[in-house]
Amino acid sequence: MFFATLCAGCNQPGESLCHRCRFSLAATPSHVDESGIMAALAFEGVARQVVHGLKYRNRRAVAREVARLMVRRLRVRSVDVVTWAPTSGARARRRGYDQAELLARAVAAELKVPCRRLLYRSHGGSQTGHSRAERLRGPSFRARSSHGRLRVLLIDDVVTTGATLTAAREALLQAGVGTVICAAAAATPSALQSMRPARRRTAAIASVASTSTHTPRIPTPSAAETLLTTSSRKAVRPASAPSLARAS
Q1: Element (H, E) at 81
Q2: pLDDT: is 79 or 205 the higher one?
């Protein structure tokens, strides 16, 4: 029991992300802002619990699930390398890891491309707890020089104002990178006000008592089981006699 795996969304024993929480994460659309920064989830409800679990509660295993969801929902293709916007050194030492790096390496594994550290934080602490005005000034980064016109996927965990990803993108471009694609696991409600849905998606199951698909909630066990057994990947159609005859 001491070493049981707990779901990062609902804290129940089992997988790092249970079926119920996976379905609830599928309820919200991905978003993109005018500068091209993409976010796979809205930072609220189950998504907030999952990202907080990765960021503050050492739920490292959920990084693979979040990365898989980011690749599938944001449809990022044809990149040469994946990198991340590093957090402050003090935060990384305190936690023992950088959550953005974990996400970047998991995304790179999904895309089957290299993951390299191309950015270093020049000065300043974490953005957590700062006012919006302080966040808008953003951190400062320096990037490794690039001699090729690389297409780089830049990863962060949460978008609040976009200042971190914007500053990191500018550092990469100044270092000679050809193209920088910015993607985050989630965007806060304030950030979503300046973003638009990246594409239409059919909302997944929310709570039976809920009429909103904006804030995802954990579906009931019966609803999750129904979706699981009727999903297109698991559904098996019985073969009819004529079809068997044609096949033979």
Answers
A1: strand 81-84
A2: 79
